[in-house]
Amino acid sequence: MTKNYDAIIERNSFGGMCVNTGCIPTKTMVASGKRAFTRTALNDAEIVDANLLDNDPRNVSDRITAYALYIDPPLGRAVLTEAEVRKSGRRALIGRRPMRKVGRAVEKGFMKIIVDAQTRQILGAAILGTGGDKAIHSILDVMYDRAPYPVIQRAMHIHPTVSKPLSAAAGARR
């Protein structure tokens, strides 16, 4: 049986370093073990560590919201949905690619990339299909760099992988 442990990180008794914008609590809880958001808690600890030990002013607000659903086929998602972008009134380009055009895919599904029409930065993405939970990381890397979508479109991806058709989805916009 695996035990779960909690660690309390305390800078000193009169303050501390907060992973959230604008607050300075005395303690930050970092949960470990087999819990739903262990990776998020680990990233919180990395942010605290960067601030305290490396003088690197990282913040939780810099984190891009992303998740995977381990269903069959898997879903990888990042930040905004098409509906959220439309509701905001922001002009967007939307690239789509059906999974039937992906050599390794054996089921139905899709890739969708939502891009700000003015800045050309990726606002969100969804990949439902074989490897969608892994391929979303290619998009996240470009989002963290705040690079324009053609970076994915122009990249030479390994064939036949699920990441390769992302370049076509990035180019198929309306």
Please characterize this protein's 3D structure:
The chain has 174 residues and is an alpha+beta fold. The chain has two domains: 6-62, no CATH class; 66-171, Enolase-like, domain 1, CATH 3.30.390. It has five helices and seven strands, in the order ββαββαβββααα. It has helices spanning 38-53, 82-88, 132-145, 150-154, 166-171, and strands spanning 6-9, 28-31, 66-69, 75-79, 92-98, 110-116, 122-128. The protein has a five-stranded antiparallel sheet, with helices on both faces. A two-stranded antiparallel sheet has the order 1-2. The N and C termini lie far apart (52 Å).
CATH superfamily of the largest domain: FAD/NAD-linked reductase, C-terminal dimerisation domain
Reading the helices and strands in chain order gives EEHEEHEEEHHH
Distance between the termini: 52 Å
Number of distinct helices: 5
Strand % is 15-25%
For the report, how would you describe the main beta sheet?
5 strands, antiparallel
The geometry reads as: globular
Largest sheet: spatial strand order: 3-4-7-6-5
What topology does this entry show?
Elements: E1 6-9, E2 28-31, H1 38-53, E3 66-69, E4 75-79, H2 82-88, E5 92-98, E6 110-116, E7 122-128, H3 132-145, H4 150-154, H5 166-171
Antiparallel strand pairs: 1-2, 3-4, 4-7, 5-6, 6-7
Task: List descriptors.
22% strand; 174 residues; 7 strands; Enolase-like, domain 1; 2 domains; alpha+beta
Summarize this, please?
The protein is α+β, with helices and mostly antiparallel strands. It has 5 helices and 7 strands, in the order ββαββαβββααα.
